[in-house]
Amino acid sequence: MGGTFDPVHHGHLVAASEVQAQFDLDEVIFVPTGQPWQKTDRKVSAPEDRYLMTVIATASNPHFSVSRVDVERGGTTYTVDTLHDLRNAFPDAELFFITGADALQQILSWRQAEELFSLAHFVGVTRPGYNLDDTHLPNGSVSLIDVPAMAISSTACRERVASGLPVWYLVPDGVVQYISKRDLYRNA
Ligand SMILES: Nc1ncnc2c1ncn2[C@@H]1O[C@H](COP(=O)(O)OP(=O)(O)OP(=O)(O)O)[C@@H](O)[C@H]1O
Ligand SMILES: O=C(O)c1ccc[n+]([C@@H]2O[C@H](COP(=O)([O-])O)[C@@H](O)[C@H]2O)c1
């Protein structure tokens, strides 16, 4: 599951847990991005902060892990590179790539989109506020599944911190503490 994770929140975690259970996956690997090229409208937090928050958020789940492939490669992140790196790291694995409905709406604009679907099975998860009725995806390229609706976004979390509102219970406790310790989002 790739994401900017700025910060990681319970919407990400519930979606990942649901896909893990429905597809009986050995592992869900969270992959925090380097620089996301479709989010140029704002400053994204440092990759190491986003990586560490993701480690904290996933640490208690034996099926969850975090990969540094996008952080280590640096620069702009393209999923085609992520999937080639994961294939090299796990030559025999069956790879799935989990995306929310909002990201799926844009997927045909991703770099080398035509190649992506041959590198992994794509799993699209429902997300409140987004529907895929008008999104044309190549036939059979994406499995769409319902996950418990979590009306949470990283944007709303950042805005709440900037306004002095709590993010307890929207993000894991350790992530609340990390945001406070590193003084993230106060000027978001
Ligand atoms: N509440 C949610 N329910 C289901 N999927 C989600 C949810 N939030 C994010 N996702 C999916 O998780 C992946 C990573 O999302 P991302 O890190 O961009 O979070 P975000 O909340 O969309 O961030 P931002 O508000 O900063 O755009 C994307 O595929 C996105 O569609
Ligand atoms: O490959 C691309 O061109 C591309 C464009 C936009 C998003 N993505 C990936 O989609 C995932 C979710 O991205 P985001 O921006 O919604 O956090 C993350 O892994 C991104 O690297 C990938």
UniProtKB/TrEMBL annotation:
Gene3D superfamilies: HUPs (3.40.50.620). It catalyses: nicotinate beta-D-ribonucleotide + ATP + H(+) = deamido-NAD(+) + diphosphate. Pathway: Cofactor biosynthesis; NAD(+) biosynthesis; deamido-NAD(+) from nicotinate D-ribonucleotide: step 1/1. Keywords: ATP-binding, NAD, Nucleotide-binding, Nucleotidyltransferase, Pyridine nucleotide biosynthesis, Transferase. Its EC number is 2.7.7.18. Pfam families: CTP_transf_like. GO terms for molecular function: ATP binding; nicotinate-nucleotide adenylyltransferase activity. InterPro entries: Cyt_trans-like (IPR004821), NadD/NMNAT (IPR005248), Rossmann-like_a/b/a_fold (IPR014729). Residues 1-160 form the Cytidyltransferase-like domain. GO terms for biological process: NAD+ biosynthetic process. It comes from the Bacteria. Belongs to the NadD family. Catalyzes the reversible adenylation of nicotinate mononucleotide (NaMN) to nicotinic acid adenine dinucleotide (NaAD). This is Probable nicotinate-nucleotide adenylyltransferase. It comes from Actinophytocola oryzae.
